[in-house]
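Job type: complex structure
Entries:
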Amino acid sequence: MLTIAVSKGRIYEEALPFLENAGISPVDDPKKSRKLILATTREDVQLVIIRATDVPTFVEYGAADMGIAGKDVLLEHGAESLYEPLDLGIATCRLMTAAHKDEPLPKRRIRVATKYVKTAQRYFAEQGIQAEIIKLYGSMELAPLVGLADCIVDLVDTGNTLRANNLEPRELIMNISSRLVVNKAAMKIKHQAICELLQQFEQTLTRRRAAS
Ligand code: PRT
Ligand code: MG
């Protein structure tokens, strides 16, 4: 049995064509079902539906053989414990700093609100900028508005969320997409099954590149 960890929402939606090309269709719709383990049209494959940020943990510990996770989540988790063989090019966005529109950052040590604590720490250290990182679990955009932070580090797609809150994107930290990750032991023990699946995913990628 191969277990694949995916999160509900945009990653699941965009990963479906890859799964379907490999003959994997979940028997229940995760949007309607409360089941956390979904059987699929392939007897040898099941999906576990978890929070996006938990995917690397499940795969690292072998609770799932493989998973699909955003590069933002992988950076924050630390990727040394996993194989990351394939960039699926889905759920794309940018990890950016953002701040009040038209307001320069203060010259003193800045306060940064984010859920990406390690990534933000690394980024500001590389830039030689003194920053105090404040961990939040959501609604980062609120922090500069209420004086909790001078800027934020968050994902930006259309920029609508920033604009709606009078913020503007500033520096690009990294372009983000979702990656296929594989447990290291599973890669040895279930080598053939995993490599077959990898090839099928690659085939979908190649077809998409040709079509675009
Ligand atoms: O929601 P939950 O707490 O369960 O987890 P999650 O928020 O991590 O899950 P989900 O499904 O929202 O995001 C999963 C992954 O999708 C992320 O880890 C990213 O890799 C990827 N992704 C791609 C995004 C976005 N685009 C995105 N725009 N994740 C979040 N956003 C949010 C962003 O945080 C901000 O609040 O959308 C808002 C910005 O969008 P725009 O279009 O207004 O700029
Ligand atoms: Mg979310």
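Summary: Residues 2-91+177-211 form a domain with the D-Maltodextrin-Binding Protein; domain 2 fold (CATH 3.40.190.10). Residues 191-211 form the longest helix (21 residues).
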